[in-house]
Fold:
Amino acid sequence: MKKIFIYFVFAVLLSCKKDNVDDGGGNNQTTLSDKIAKTWVANSVKEDGASVYSKGDNSNLKPGYSAFKLDLQKNGTLSLEEIEGTKISGKWRLASNDSKLVLENLQPVPSESGGTLEFTISLANETNLNISATKSNFKTGGTMNTYILIPG
Structure:
C-alpha cells in the first residue's frame, strides 16, 4: 500500500505543468514578448502630463479612450483601434533591450508617423503595460501621451 501511495504522489508531481520554466541558470524562459502578447485597453491616459482618461470615471475629458484597444499577437502582428475609431494594422516588436515597443508597417499610416509609432516602456508584465509615446500625437493636438494599459 505504501508503494502505491508513493507511485501516486510521484505521478501527480510529474503531471503538474509549470508555466514559467527555469532553465537551470535562474533565467525564466517566459519572454517579455510572451507576457505582453494580448489585447490591451486603456486604464488611464495622460496627454502632456494631464490626466484625460480614467477607466470608469464619468467626468473624463476624453471619454473616447474607452474605445482604445491595442492587440499584440504572438506572431508579431497587431491591430490598434484609436480613440476616434480608426483601425490600424501592422507589426510590433520590442527594441532597446525590451525598453521600447515599436509599432511598424502601420496601415493606414497614422498622420506624421511614417508608418511607425514608438513607445518607451516603464512597466510591462502580464497585467500591466505602461508606455509613453516618444513623439507627439497629432490626433490629440500634438501632445505627448502616456498610457497605462490593462488586459481587455
Residues 76 and 118 are 15 Å apart (CA to CA).
